[in-house]
Specification:
Layout: E1 8-12, H1 15-25, E2 29-34, E3 37-42, E4 45-51, E5 66-69, H2 72-84, E6 89-91, E7 99-103, E8 109-113, H3 117-126
Parallel strand pairs: 1-4, 5-8
Antiparallel strand pairs: 2-3, 3-4, 6-7, 7-8
């Protein structure tokens, strides 16, 4: 039985730039670093950065992304830090809760979000999306 996400691995093209972005800008705690990668912790998430020569520097055109939780009291400060880092904003927020959608130095689509699944479901019940059905 699957119990949850074990870790997230992102392919990167520049370890020093990526390491700096995730530790300094996003506040990840470094655990280990080697010539071609690093292990970091963001909250309860184990994040692996692994250099891959084939990794693109531009983003994917799809909506796939990784969202990190931030508190409402930290949201503005973290947004400022991300924007001041020069990160590209790839989408405006259209969902409930405060969100900032941005690219890491390798073009991975990321989001910081204030809220959780329950607040998202409450919002969806108030303004249902086309074809929305609930199972619980």
């Amino acid at each position: 039985m699957i119990r949850g996400i074990n870790h997230i691995t992102l392919s990167i093209h520049d370890l020093p730039t990526s390491f700096d972005f995730y530790t300094r800008v996003l506040g990840a705690r470094p655990i280990a670093k080697w010539n071609t990668g690093a292990y970091l912790v963001l909250g309860d998430v184990w994040l692996a950065l692994v250099r891959d020569e084939k990794t693109r520097a531009a983003s994917n055109p799809d909506y796939s992304h990784i969202a990190f939780t931030v508190s409402s009291s930290d949201f503005a400060r973290v947004c400022d830090r991300i924007k001041n880092s020069g990160a590209t904003i790839w989408q405006e927020n259209w969902t409930e809760g405060d969100s900032l959608y941005f690219l890491d130095p390798n073009g991975h689509k990321l989001e910081i979000h204030v809220g959780d699944l329950q607040s998202r479901l409450t919002s969806a019940k108030e303004k249902p999306w086309a074809g929305l059905e609930f199972f619980e």
